[in-house]
Amino acid sequence: MKWTQIPLGPLQTNAYIIENEKKEAVVIDPGSQGDELVKWLQNQELTPLAILLTHAHFDHIGAVDAVRETFACPVYLHIAEKDWLLDPAKNGSARFTGNEPIVAKAAEKLIDKEEQLTIGPFQFSILETPGHSPGSVSYYQEEAEIVYSGDALFAGSIGRTDLPGGNHSQLLQSIHDKLLELPENTVVACGHGSTTTIGQEMDSNPFLSGF
Fold first, then answer.
1. Contact, 141 vs 123, CB < 8 A?
2. N or C: which end of the chain has fewer CB within 10 A?
3. Do the Cβ atoms of 155 and 196 come closer than 8 Å?
4. Residue 99 pLDDT more than 90?
5. Mean per-residue pLDDT, 91-113
6. CA distances (Å), 111 to each of 24, 72, 116, 139, 165, in order?
7. Of 1, 12, 45, which is closest to residue 154 (Cα–Cα)?
8. Which CATH number does the domain 2-204 belong to among 3.40.30.10, 3.90.226.10, 3.60.15.10, 3.40.50.300?
9. What counts of helices (H) and strands (E) characterise the chain?
10. Residue 192 pLDDT > 60, yes or no?
11. Taking residues 20-32, what's their average pLDDT?
């Protein structure tokens, strides 16, 4: 299997495409530029089996319907944010000047606990990592040694917690209890910016020092 990072939209939100040799794929956080993302998937001859959302802020969901409707694949989202796709006030698009309200159809699959998620040949461990938003989750692939952390943990930083439902202490607890417990060589595929590793963030992330 291999994965590709594709920054999308004005906030350069990272979409991740995980694929296997049979050209089956999983799309994580298709945030914007739906037509371009669909065209890229088609040019790569990929067949998405599912869309996984780390959370439902507007910059992570803008291309959800374009991908879902083109490939007829279900969307997975934590139950704590089940109505955010439909509500610009909750997904944040109503708060930012210049943004058109962003809405998508409701998710077909609601996550309500930490468990193993199997989508075709793809295996993920769901980690509940709230704090940036109430329903934030991270998707961990142990065999591939990578965790898709959304906006929980970044290279040298952590997610913002000043949006509705954000909680700084809860985010730090999530990072400490769930992400920093992963092997240090685990790649952290962040929602924005470059990838990092758990070990690097343990050693040098100023937001985590002394926690």
1. yes
2. C
3. yes
4. no
5. 88
6. 22, 19, 11, 12, 18
7. 12
8. 3.60.15.10
9. 5, 14
10. yes
11. 97
User: Which range (19-33, 91-105, 163-177) has the least confidence?
Assistant: 91-105
> How high is the pLDDT of residue 64?
98
CB 131 within 8 A of CB 103: no
CA 100, 36, 110 angle in degrees (round to 5)? 65
Domain boundaries, the chain: 2-204
Tokens 């906006």 label which residue?
151
Residue 102 identity (one-letter amino acid):
I
Q: Phi/psi of residue 198, each to 5°?
A: -60, -45
Which residue intervals of 20-165 are DSSP H helices? 34-43, 64-71, 88-91
Q: What is the dihedral of CA 178, 180, 186, 190, to 10 degrees?
A: 70
Average pLDDT rounded to a whole number, residues 157-162: 96
User: Does residue 98 carry a pLDDT above 70?
Assistant: no
Distance, CA of 82 to chain centre = 15
HSE value, Cβ hemisphere, 13 Å, CA-based, for 73: 25
Q: Is 129 helix (H, G, I), strand (E, B) or coil?
A: coil
CA angle at residue 59 from 150 to 66, to 5 degrees? Answer: 105
pLDDT for 40: 98
Residue 28 identity (one-letter amino acid): I
Helix H or strand E segment including 189: strand 187-190
Q: Which residues contact 87 (CB under 8 A, 6 or more apart)?
A: 103
